[in-house]
Amino acid sequence: MFFADRSNDRIQIFTQDGKLLDTWYQFSRISGLVITPGDTLYAADSESGSIAPTRPEWKRGIRIGSAKDGTVWHFIPDPVEVTRNTSAAEGVAVDAKGNVYGAEVGPRALKRYVKP
Q1: Contacts of 13 by beta carbon, 8 Å cutoff, 6+ apart
Q2: Can you give the pTM of this predicted structure?
């Protein structure tokens, strides 16, 4: 089981019995998480960077990587680089074609990112 622990900037991975297997920090401050049947992990971060200046090296956006080993492969950046309000996706979904959807609470919008 994967748990997005936004308050502690991490993903925790547990067995079905509740035993902690691993902790990942490379997906940043996650508010939305989805894992596809092919074990691709999509993590939405709407509060890093200028929103949470304690981690300026983390940028807001959607990180895409492996649910098997935690490698981050791709990053879809927040369209607004510097802001004091939430503007990036807080929720994330992926359709059967691999298109990514970001649910943006601040701007009250849904953005679709089409797979090339």
Answers
A1: 1, 2, 3, 20, 21, 22, 23, 24
A2: 0.87
Give yes or no for a contact between 42 and 64, defined as CB atoms under 8 angstroms apart: yes
Cα–Cα distance, 5 to 12 (Å, whole number): 7
Ramachandran sector of residue 30 (left: φ over 0; alpha: ψ -120 to 50; beta: rest): beta
Give the pLDDT confidence of 28-61 residue by residue, as tens digits.
888 899 999 999 999 998 777 666 667 677 788 8
Domains and CATH numbers, the chain: 31-113 (2.40.10)
In which residue are the tokens 């359709």 written?
95
**DSSP notation for 25-82:** -TT-S-SEEEE-TT-EEEEEESSSTTSSTT-TTSPSEEEEEETTT--EEEEEE-S-SS
Question: What amino acid is encoded at 54 in this protein?
Answer: T
